Amino acid sequence: MDMKTGTSVLIVVTRRWNILQYRNFNIEVRKEDEGYSGNSYRVDDGWELVCWWNPSIRTKKDAIEECKITIDDYYENPSDFEG
Q: How far from the centroid of its chain's Cα atoms is residue 21's Cα?
C-alpha cells in the first residue's frame, strides 16, 4: 500500500536469467523453486531449440551443461530437432 496515495502497489520480483553463448546458440538458465529452468535459442534467427525445467538439477553449472549437451546433440543430428 502506498501510504501517500492510499493505492495498492504491486511489486513483481523476477529471477535473473544467466545468459551465455555456445556454438551459435544463446543459453539462458535460472534457478526455479527446487531446480533450474533453461532454454536455448539460435543467435541468427531466434529459433528455440529447447525450453525445460528440471527439479533434479541443483547447480547453475549443471543447468548450463544440460543445455550444451542438447546443442551438441542438435549439431550431430539436426533432423531430430527440426521438422
A: 12
pLDDT tens-digit readout, 40-60: 999 999 999 999 999 999 999
17: helix, strand or coil: coil
Which string of b and e fits 8-36 if b means at least 16 CB within 10 Å? eeeeeeeeeeeeeeeeebbbbbbbeeebb
pLDDT at 78: 95
* Residue type at position 27: I
How far, in Å, CA of 46 to CA of 26, rounded?
Answer: 9
Report the predicted TM-score, pTM, of the whole model to 2 decimal places: 0.77
Q: Is residue 11 part of a domain?
A: no
- Number of structural domains (the chain) is 1
